[in-house]
Design a protein that fits this description.
This protein has 246 residues and is an alpha/beta fold. It contains 9 helices and 11 strands. Strands 4-3-5-2-1-6-10-11-9 form a 9-stranded mixed sheet, with helices on both faces.
Length: 246
């Protein structure tokens, strides 16, 4: 694969916890992990530098627990630990595909992950390693979407690929409403003002302030991420496309 055909050279993939559960109602799907690891391997072999922020909603949702009476900070820290579990599972799947991988955590947990250090993360990327960024920002009250926007800005990512279980952004939930309309392109302000479920307002504002485009796509459809990296129209674009990488 010629590197000159790439639109993006350095990407951040936001992978939802729900995607990792595959067809299951909760937990992890080994079959999906194997499939997504193969796709990440293909992307890595194309010469793309990839960082991944993984959600934890398949195991524990801090916001939901908080709404049910749990202390919000405590619940959010539990959610961060769930993302570490998912990150280790993804690392295992990637390493079984012979893809060099590092897990870097915003919470110190030295036995299983490196501490997140921006310069070290960039160095890993430059060496061709996939970097999995666990534990969100390390702070309660911030979602993993916000963590994805923050890390994308820190590592100077060209784009955020938000890999979900739906083909893009809709005007309402396509699972509940079969006539829901899919958007091909949105501005950051449309996402914020219309309260569309792309990213929370903090994450969307970070992306807007740093001109980081977001592509929302279906992670369960094989080849979607590769096609997006090549510049094909996939999913929903939020923001403006940057010039193709040289």
């Amino acid at each position: 694969m010629e590197k000159t055909s790439l639109r993006y050279r350095r990407i951040l993939i936001k992978l939802s916890g729900e995607a990792l559960q595959g067809e299951n109602s909760h937990g992890l799907s080994p079959a999906f992990l194997e499939e997504i690891a193969r796709e990440f391997r293909e992307i890595n072999e194309m010469g793309v530098q990839s960082a991944v922020v993984v959600g934890g909603g398949n195991i524990f949702r801090g916001l939901k627990a908080s709404a049910e009476g749990m202390d919000r900070s405590q619940a959010d820290y539990m959610g961060m630990l769930a993302t570490i579990i998912n990150s280790l599972a993804l690392q295992d799947a990637l390493e079984r595909q012979n893809v060099p991988t590092r897990v870097m955590s915003a919470l110190e947990i030295h036995q299983v992950a490196e501490p997140y250090i921006r310069r070290r993360a960039i160095r890993h990327l430059e060496k061709g390693r996939i970097v999995i960024l666990a534990a969100g920002t390390g702070n309660p009250y911030f979602t993993t979407d916000t963590a994805a926007a923050l890390r994308a800005a820190e590592i100077c990512a060209d784009v955020i690929l938000k890999a979900t279980k739906v083909p893009g952004v809709y005007d309402r939930d396509p699972v509940l409403y079969p006539d829901a309309v899919k958007f091909d392109k949105l501005s950051y302000m449309e996402v914020i003002n219309k309260k569309l479920k792309v990213m929370d307002s903090t994450a969307a504002s970070l992306c807007m302030d740093n001109s980081i485009p977001i592509i929302v796509l279906d992670a369960c459809r094989k080849g979607n991420m590769r096609r997006a990296i090549m510049g094909e129209d996939v999913g929903t674009l939020v923001g403006e496309l940057k010039p193709a990488a040289l």
